[in-house]
Amino acid sequence: MDLRKKRILVTGGGGFLGGHVANRLRQSGCNQVLCPRRSEFNLVREADVARLVSSYRPQVVFHLAAAVGGIGAHVRNAGAFVYENVMMGCQLMEMCRRIETEKFLIAGTICAYPKLTPVPFKEDDLWNGYPAETTAPYGLAKKILIVQSDAYYRQYGFRCVNVLLVNLYGPRDHFDVENGHVIPSLIRRFVDARARGDQTVTVWGTGRATREFLYVEDAALAIHRAAERIDTPPPINIGSGEETSIADLARMIAFKTGFRGSIRFDANRPDGQPRRCLDVSRAKHLLDFQASTSLSDGLDRTIRWYQASRIGAAA
Q: Cβ of 174: how many Cβ atoms within 10 Å?
């Protein structure tokens, strides 16, 4: 599909991932990229979804809007995360089916995988158990959209694409200590600690849990290619294929931000899923995609952006 000729709707286009995807689409020659804000259309409300779809009549949809955060946010907002993510995705897909939208891409999550999935996670393992308890409401909400997209494809021929994303990071992320994802949260903790002269930074969990991280611009490229090349619902893992422990990540960020104090791991806080790392062979085969930004380089770029934004905000 030549996306340059299509009227494209990007939900969450004002957010972290959505903003990068929208920028990539425009830079590739797409001149009809629509990014409505939540203040205009609240996708949890059926009337707003109907008004959005009837007003824009999108030919292609990138559904990237989500209620999500770090482990702390998942624990505090479990009910809201499951409700809002199910309602946004299910209603939007149904309204787009009714107007015969040509393609509907869904940004899924690695949180949908069972808690004890063998590493590396293969797409065929997705249904082999219950997700990690701390992020299960969010993971299952995203998982139901895979079920819906498969059912719509079989009954209506509605073309859906599902990508399963690992932990993303990069410029313009949400650097919130309490609600942010692990990398932006740690960057802010260490930058703030250095500025205050603190001698210790506390990190949630034992540090033994592992995660896989993908630079957001690499993710935007993979999502763009998936929309161009894929027409069917079976999910595709999108990641770097590299596993990093939270302890190693924290030490790396501390060094890169200039923090020279000690790191304390709080074992009373949840680790979440013990290990996370994807088999990315399907993405390489179908999308010719392989992450090009190393974790070290991506962290350097992200830290530089955050420090520059702090200086700009202070000014």
A: 16
What pLDDT, in 10s, does the model give residues 245-257? 999 999 999 999 9
Structure tokens at 170: 């990069």
Q: Are 208 and 271 in contact (CB under 8 A)?
A: yes
Written as six digits, the tokens of 42 are: 């609240």
**In a shared domain, residues 160 and 251:** no
Q: How far apart are CA 306 and CA 301, in angstroms?
A: 9
Distances (CA, A) of 5 to 28, 29, 228, 231: 11, 9, 12, 17
Within a domain: 92: yes
Active site residue 138: yes
| Contact call for residues 18 and 173 (beta carbons, < 8 A) | no
Q: Number of folded domains in the chain?
A: 2
pTM higher than the cut 0.90: yes
Q: Residue 12 is part of a domain; what is its CATH number?
A: 3.40.50.720
Return d(Cα 161, Cα 62) in angstroms, integer.
9
Catalytic residue among 138, 152, 169, 306: 138
Estimate the crossing angle of helix 136-156 against helix 78-98, to 10 degrees: 10
Domain that holds residue 133: 3-169+213-241
